[in-house]
């Protein structure tokens, strides 16, 4: 069942690209929400520092996180928004 007689997958067995991208986008949004602790739609250096610390990256200094933010902060506001986060994760 689910296979055509020729042994190849039928169209019903293959998720369209948009479905796959939607799932990946949802995963990215969830990851972003983990870092965006205050829920304001921006990741600050302090939020990044706290999140990294909570998953075991104890050795990172806040200044390291400031530099990490600067590298992906394309609009220069000192924070990472979702679009910048998504671009960084590609």
UniProtKB/TrEMBL annotation:
Residues 1-23 are annotated as: Disordered. Keywords: Calcium, Metal-binding, Repeat. GO terms for molecular function: calcium ion binding. It comes from the Eukaryota. Residues 23-58, 60-90 form the EF-hand domain. Pfam families: EF-hand_7. Coiled coil: none annotated. This is EF-hand domain-containing protein. It comes from Ceratopteris richardii.
């Amino acid at each position: 069942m689910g296979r055509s007689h020729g042994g190849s997958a039928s169209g019903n067995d293959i998720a369209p690209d948009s479905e796959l991208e939607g799932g990946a986008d949802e995963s990215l949004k969830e990851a972003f929400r983990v870092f965006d602790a205050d829920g304001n739609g921006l990741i600050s250096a302090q939020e990044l520092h706290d999140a990294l610390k909570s998953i075991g990256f104890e050795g990172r200094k806040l200044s390291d996180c400031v530099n990490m933010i600067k590298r992906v902060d394309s609009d220069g506001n000192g924070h990472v928004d979702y679009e910048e986060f998504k671009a960084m994760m590609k």
